[in-house]
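Fold this sequence, please.
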Amino acid sequence: MEKNKEISQDEQKQYLAKTQTITDDHIKEVDTLMEAKEKELMEV
């Protein structure tokens, strides 16, 4: 997108940072769910 000058470098950096934050949040959520599932399976 930057090559076509559709967005500026600053906008690209903002979008990349926002995307990374969302990705990190979802990874944390999945890790939490995995821990809970592991505990559940160990109880059985």
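The CA atoms of residues 35 and 41 lie 10 Å apart. The chain has a mean pLDDT of 92.
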